[in-house]
């Protein structure tokens, strides 16, 4: 494969055919040879090909050269390559230009890319603009995107805890981990503990961080299995769910391990969990 790519690269050294250069560049990029791919895309872009400019941006972004990637995407957009909007949003977000990223994601969405609406939705939600975030996600769902639909279902559940959302959460469970975790919570709340356990254990086996906390809660509160609950909380912590520190701390308190509980609350506080802070204040003030 490498010999074939090198042979094609030598053959196209002086090529004036953008399509051939782009095809080779894509194959080089797929092989992880982003510097060589950059050269092909740069020559195609110099020949005035907008797809070449778009792919040049991708090759530069793959090398961590985001400022240069922004320039390439902007050239592609100016030439009418609307596919560049979302990738422009991604690199601008990585560069910390959130206003620019939101503008780019909106451009992607308006060009018919549901992932653009989702990118905008998540940024708006991070800024505390939850209503606008939901509207953006709904626009992505309206384009037929199952991930956007799952996000909408999950966010609506977090606002309403409406059991009528069960069909949407079931449909979204395979597309958005929070939707699976929310489905587990809904099933537990409506008395279907065995199915809730199956749903959450599946999420955990699939490596979905979001399933560990509700699974631990179910083990503890519904099944009375404290050892399984502790294992679930600790697995959640290892997977990056900082809120598991608080629930593990509460479990340790029930077992009489106050020192261990306080340690968990402190770890939760360090990660920004307000519930852990209130629990820590309670124990340190007593």
UniProtKB/TrEMBL annotation:
Any one of the GO BP annotations: protein O-linked glycosylation via mannose
Listed InterPro entries: TMTC_O-mannosyltransferase (IPR052384), TPR-4 (IPR011717), TPR-like_helical_dom_sf (IPR011990), TPR_rpt (IPR019734)
Parts of the chain that traverse the membrane: none
GO molecular function list: identical protein binding; mannosyltransferase activity
Cited PANTHER family: PROTEIN O-MANNOSYL-TRANSFERASE TMTC2
Protein name (record): Tetratricopeptide (TPR) repeat protein
Biological source species: Petropleomorpha daqingensis
Lineage, top ranks: Bacteria, Bacillati, Actinomycetota, Actinomycetes, Geodermatophilales
